[in-house]
Amino acid sequence: MRRGAGPENLAFREGERWRPPIFVPLDSRRARLMAVVRRFFDLQAGSLWLHLAPVLSRATGTVADVGCGAQPYRGLLPPGTHYVGLDSEQALEHFGYEVADVRAIGADGRWPLEDGEADLVLATETLEHVPEPPAFLEQAFRALRPGGRLIITTPFAARWHYIPFDYWRFTPSSLRLLLEGAGFEDVVVHGRGNERTVACYKVLALLLPRVLPQDADGTPHLRPAGLLLAPLILSLTVVANFSLRAPAGDDCLGYTTFATRSRSGPVS
Predict the structure, then answer these.
(1) Do residue 114 and residue 144 come from a single domain?
(2) 159 lies in which domain range?
(3) What are phi and psi of 38, to 5 degrees?
(4) 5 belongs to a structural domain
(5) Is 138 among the domain residues?
(6) Strand pairing of 102-105 and 144-155?
(7) pLDDT tens digits, residue range 254-268?
(8) Residue 17 CB: number of other CB atoms within 10 A?
(9) Cα–Cα distance between 135 and 131 in angstroms, integer?
(10) What's the rounded mean pLDDT across residues 18-31?
(11) Residues 239, 154 within the same domain
């Protein structure tokens, strides 16, 4: 739209002006080292790891990772667990991910899992990309054994991403409403960060595209003048990481939700 012609109609936006690099499989020492660095500067990724690492290290049985992408949390699972990665058949087209040995979820939305096959279903930063969240949770209920656990992470104070395939932002109230409506119980929602974390995150989101602008194909390049902002970026990141250890606030980066599949109720 030409400058001065009025506000842009965002309903038909098809892409992002700046996109963080996608995650990569942690299949080498260098990839694992770069992931550690990223979790320090990428507050969403770091907060997810902080919440998931202690829980996934105690997982048992079959773990279904739905919307698995590059499978960044697979290495947290202990030996003896059976990992099953699932992702949309359009994961490469929509999100840029193509990983071997992933079961594809087709257009009908049915997960390629048997009824009660999974002991734990994990869905990290996935539900906001699902056009019909209740149908997604019906599949989670069906795929879990009675008494099985569901772990979902969702963003809240986060940029619109993977445009146009980012549809929702959920509050703790809506997460409880959706999960209990799908037959889950013992719903627990934890916030990731607080107002201080969000403030740092928003300033970093303003600075990073100026320090690391991207070419038309998405390739980032360092702007030399951006080095002057390095002390500020580092300071904000340190403050934000410390804030992640403080109690969650009414405004936060996102939510980590735990629920149990009830031992009764319809499986459809």
Answers:
(1) yes
(2) 24-193+252-261
(3) -65, -40
(4) no
(5) yes
(6) unpaired
(7) 999 999 999 875 444
(8) 9
(9) 9
(10) 90
(11) no
- Both tokens of residue 263? 């031992």
| Total structural domains within the chain | 2
Pick from 71, 67, 64, 75: which is nearest to 153 by CA?
A: 67
Asked if 126 and 222 sit in the same domain, the reply is no
Task: Check residue 1 and give its pLDDT.
Answer: 46
Nearest one of 58, 73, 63, 66 to 26, comparing CA atoms: 73
Query: Within 13 Å, how many C-alpha atoms sit on residue 99's CB side?
Result: 23
Give the per-residue pLDDT at 2: 53
| CB-neighbour burial class of residue 178 (10 A; exposed 0-12, middle 13-18, buried 19+) | buried
* Residue 205 vs residues 20, 74, 225: alpha-carbon distances, Å: 10, 28, 17
Does a structural domain hold residue 129?
yes
- Claim to verify: residue 131 and residue 46 sit in the same structural domain: yes
Cα gap 254→56, rounded to integer Å: 18
Identify the DSSP state of 22: P
**CATH number of residue 64's parent domain:** 3.40.50.150
User: Domain check: are 216 and 186 in the same one?
Assistant: no
Q: Could you tell me if 185 and 63 lie in one domain?
A: yes
Query: Token pair 């991910």 is at which residue?
Result: 97
What confidence score (pLDDT) does residue 226 get?
A: 79
Nearest Cα neighbor of 207 from 18, 65, 2, 16 is 18
* DSSP secondary structure of 162-218: STTS------HHHHHHHHHHTTEEEEEEEEE--HHHHHHHHHHHHHHHHHS-B-TTS
Per-residue confidence band for 4, with pLDDT thresholds at 50, 70 and 90: low
Which residue, 141, 127, 123, is CA-closest to 64? 123
Q: Is residue 95 part of a domain?
A: yes
